[in-house]
Amino acid sequence: MRFPACLATLLFAAGAASADIGQVIANHARPGYAAFVEAGRALDEAARADCAPAGLVAPFHAAQDAWMRVAHLRIGPSEDRGRALSIAFWPDPKESGRRTTAGLIAAENPVVHDPAAFTRISVAARGFPALERLIFADPPPSGDPAYLCDLTRALTGDLVLQAQALDEAWIGDFARLLTGAGQPGNQTYLSAAEARQALFTLLVAGLEMDADQRLGRPLGTIDRPRPEQAEARASHRSRRNLAVSLAGLRELMLALTAGHRVPHSSAALDRAIALAGAAGAPDMSDLATPEGWQRADTLRREIKAARAVIMAEIPPLLGVDLGFNATDGD
């Protein structure tokens, strides 16, 4: 994959002191967001050619795979204007997304014809969860077919806009903030160590999200499992989301520790990834059985173990402080 000349210049100017930061940008964030833009456009083009759900299944999965590889980059442009939430609002325990979507369809709200206005509707009614309700719902949503088509296209178009905004930020302004950490005028990152810590926080927080939310919510307890609370259950990709998320976190870890050996962290995370890819119900419905619950709980414990190993092995290499709450973000 070729990168713009301005990005190469930016990374060169960053110097050796922030080489690991440059690696995250060049080898993880940039290719990840570029792939997300490409997959989002393919989904949008498919919807504009024919918005029938059957033809959108494959491009939907490809686009969500691309997003899951970078979904953990909850920093800077991802947090700006709620972009990450507008792409994947989950968990949604009050089902506000479902209610808002139903309201749009019932009223045949013309907001679907105005891309700028559409960005101002509730984030719960945008992104992949909203598309999932239109493409995979069984039974399909009731409403005028023409309006359902317009809503689908509004959602895919909005997804492309958000993907492009993220991609552009990681080429330009936000990339300069990270690689220019400690330089005069940079009030966001006062040192390269501070920028590294922000990126390391994303790694740890991503593992917490996978263990405590993507697995913890549907796991519940062995006496009261809650498989119906799994992410992306209607599209049968609950387990797939988890596996792709872990793979993306591994990419982030290797980019952030480029030039260092992290054998214990790599081995621990690889064990979790292997377990995540093992046989199991795609929608985590097998959590309702004792055997399925135990398998998933073992995976949760492996992810938590990987997090503990990473917290022990990597911070001394990066010169970052352990005294922070990973869920705080930037």
Automatic annotation (TrEMBL):
Signal peptide bounds: 1-19
Keywords noted in UniProt: Signal
This protein's record includes keyword GTP-binding: no
Main location: other
Ranges of biased composition (kind: Basic and acidic residues): 223-234
Gene Ontology CC: one annotated term: cell envelope
Domain Imelysin-like: 29-308
Pfam families membership: Peptidase_M75 (PF09375)
Compartment annotation: Cell envelope
InterPro entries: Imelysin-like (IPR018976), Imelysin-like_IPPA (IPR034984), Imelysin_sf (IPR038352)
Keyword set includes Nuclease: no
Start and end residues of each stretch annotated as Disordered: 216-236
UniProt protein name: Signal peptidase
Record organism: Paenirhodobacter populi
Source lineage: Bacteria, Pseudomonadati, Pseudomonadota, Alphaproteobacteria, Rhodobacterales
